[in-house]
Amino acid sequence: MDNRPIGVFDSGMGGLTAVVELQKVLPREKIVYFGDTGRVPYGTKSPEILKKYTQQDIDFLKTKNVKMILAACGTVSSAAGEIGEHCGVLYSGVLKPTAAAAIRETRNGRIGVIGTPATIRSGAYERLLKTFRPEAEIFSKACPLFVPLVENRHTKKEDPLVAETLKEYLSGIREMKIDTLILGCTHYPLLAEAIGDFMGQGVTLINSGREAARFCARVLRERSLLCEEGEGEARYYVSDSVDSFRENARACLGAPVDGPVEWVAIDDF
Questions:
Q1: What residues contact residue 39 under an 8 Å CB cut-off, 6+ apart?
Q2: What is the pLDDT of residues 55-90, one digit of tens each?
Q3: pLDDT of residue 228
Q4: What phi-psi label fits residue 88: left (phi over 0), alpha (psi between -120 and 50 degrees) or beta?
Q5: Cis before residue 47, ω within 30 degrees of 0?
Q6: What is the pLDDT of residue 42?
Q7: Which of 32, 160, 197, 215 is the most buried (most CB within 10 A)?
Q8: Residue 253 burial by CB count (10 A; 0-12/13-18/19+): exposed, middle or buried?
Q9: 88 with 114: CB under 8 angstroms?
Q10: Confidence at residue 252, expressed as pLDDT on a 0 to 100 scale
Q11: CA-closest candidate to residue 75, choices 215, 167, 188
Q12: What is the pLDDT of residue 148?
């Protein structure tokens, strides 16, 4: 048994989708979440800046004596994953669990990947999916406006901004007759209802936050590092307004965050 918390970070509040899934599969665990709301989005940043931010986020979480760190950020997982792999703590991104799930789910081998510009530019999902299944056909699309939509509470399929953005980004990929679509950013599950409606019933959406949470649970269980008594709890840290984070989380998740929220000067790390 290990009562230390699990550390989770993302560029903003998208990583909360992973926290929600962690709480479902590991209800007794303590979670420390850092949302870099002052520097969101990560998906348009240069590789050098991404690596700097990733290192700072990890260094902050390590001050909380975490037993594992989950980079609940598709951009970090795709473009700066090597930082976490050498951080000295158990670590996972969302890339491998998500790609593995897509390979399990696809029937026709035609898989779509949507993500931030940095994620798509890295080609990481395409390479990994081809490793798992060389004959798979991969269709990728950067969707740079999805994160700002979510961070500004535009998530409903009835919202004209959402509808127009989906049409702009997803019309081409829908025509490719894919049967599986990777939501390659943890913000995107907050648009899942709208995306699923646009893509149609024959397309399975792969929630990167859910798959990463399940992977973390499996790793901790295999290493006998689960917390096996007491009740779970979460603490949240952000690099911008605490009140805005609370309001945005409530609007998008449909419920308030279930723990204290504090501001942190992330540039100090």
A1: 11, 53, 239, 266
A2: 999 999 999 999 999 999 999 998 888 898 889 999
A3: 81
A4: left
A5: no
A6: 93
A7: 32
A8: middle
A9: no
A10: 72
A11: 188
A12: 92
Pairing of strands 30-35, 180-183: unpaired
- Predicted local confidence at residue 253, as pLDDT: 78
Using CA atoms, how far apart are residues 9 and 235, in angstroms rounded to an integer? 12
Threshold 0.70, pTM exceeds = yes
Ranges of the chain whose pLDDT falls below 50: none
CA pair distance 154, 147, nearest whole angstrom: 10
Active site members: 73, 185
SS3 11: coil
Q: How high is the pLDDT of residue 18?
A: 93
Strand ranges of the sheet holding 137-142, from the earlier edge strand across to the other edge? 137-142, 110-115, 180-183, 204-207
DSSP states along 152-170: TT---TT-HHHHHHHHHHH
Write out the two tokens for 23. 């709480």
DSSP codes joined into one string, 89-132: SEEE-SHHHHHHHHHHH-SSSEEEEEE-HHHHHHTHHHHHHHHH
> Tokens representing 225?
């590092």
As a whole number of angstroms, the distance between CA 32 and CA 30 comes to: 7
Look up tokens 């999916």; give the residue: 129
Structure tokens belonging to residue 24:
């479902």
| Beta carbons within 8 Å of 49's beta carbon, 6+ residues apart | none
CB 253 within 8 A of CB 151: no
Q: Token pair of 12, please?
A: 């903003």
Coil/strand/helix, residue 182: strand
